[in-house]
Amino acid sequence: MSAWVYIMSNRKDGVLYIGVTADLSRRIVQHREGKGSAFCRPYGLTRLVYAEEHDSIGDAIAREKAMKAWKRAWKIELIEGLNPAWDDLFSVVL
Fold this sequence. Notes:
Layout: E1 3-9, E2 16-21, H1 24-32, E3 47-54, H2 57-69, H3 72-82, H4 90-93
Antiparallel strand pairs: 1-2, 1-3
């Protein structure tokens, strides 16, 4: 079973949210409908700016925890390495 670590944002260099899920499509739709993380709702974090697939949910959770401990600059570098324009990757990844 695959799992995903993903980063949501509201705009380039905006607020960042790192999450993990087994069903990326469903989870992003939840965020967009205001049913995702309570943290995301007030900031309007509806843009999927980064996603990486893992072989197991355990691996994805470990990666999520590591990424949440990173400095903000490292997270931005990760996003911009894949997505320099901070485009919404929802239709690209899925």
